[in-house]
Amino acid sequence: MTTPITPADRLPLRERKKLRTRQALIDTALELFTERGFDGATLDELCAAVEVSKRTFFRNFSSKEDVAMAPVHDLWTVFLDDLESREPGGRSVLEMLQDALLAALDRMPTEGWEDRVRLSRRLAEKTPSMDAHGLHFCDRTSRAALAVLHRRFNLADPRDLRLRLALDMLVAAFHCALETWTSRPGAPTRAELAAHTRDAFAAIPSSLTLTLGLREETG
């Protein structure tokens, strides 16, 4: 799992340089892949454009898919970091997870993150390898979140399915919100993404009791 960007003024010069290189790789990758298609730009071309070695690339990312999906991956990495210190405060597990994800969203970089997310999601929609990479990352993140929760909290039965189901509902709701937000015209803001996310979270309870009736045939 890659390390997300943190406020540069809190870091030593060497770390700030590393973060600038990482960000240049993300921005250049998204630009190249959008212009040429994901398979139309090679890793060699990406490294040449940023003037770094492949070794430097692989210190930051595991693959082309990894760098192209970094903006959203960073959100979930910060979500895991938040879980390390978040207290339930009498709220349900699902509510605590929702609070953690919204807090992670608020901690994303203030400059350009929304544009990177939109470019990344649009690439993923037409790149099967990115979609597969995203599913794998999602599974790893869910397992990592479960490990944090089991380590920090008193859970009587480690096989209790409710914890994993709460995480799955969180992820599914956010994906619905992200899809709605990405499809909006213009340049929707982070505040709008947060609003869509809250709406998706609010729909979870009623989705569990939703019933359907057959459509009446006409004619």
Offer a quick outline of the entry:
The protein is an all-alpha fold. The chain has helices at 13-36, 43-50, 54-60, 64-68, 70-83, 93-106, 113-125, 128-152, 161-182, 190-207. The protein contains 10 helices and no strands.
Descriptive report:
By secondary structure, the chain is mainly α. It is built from 10 helices and no strands. Helix 9 crosses helix 10 (190-207). Mean pLDDT is 92; it is low at 1-5.
Q: Number of helical segments?
A: 10
In terms of DSSP E residues, the strand content is under 5%
Q: Over the alpha carbons, how many angstroms does the gyration radius reach?
A: 19 Å
Task: Look at the helices and sheets and give the structural class.
Answer: mainly alpha
What is the helix/strand order? HHHHHHHHHH
Task: Let me know the average pLDDT.
Answer: 92
Gap from first CA to last CA: 57 Å
Envelope shape: globular
Per DSSP E runs of 2 or more residues, the count of β-strands stands at 0
- Helix percent reads 55-70%
For the largest beta-sheet, the strand count, sense and barrel status come to: none
Uncertain residue ranges: 1-5
Topology:
Blueprint: H1 13-36, H2 43-50, H3 54-60, H4 64-68, H5 70-83, H6 93-106, H7 113-125, H8 128-152, H9 161-182, H10 190-207
Q: Keywords, please?
A:
219 residues; single chain; globular; 10 helices; mainly alpha
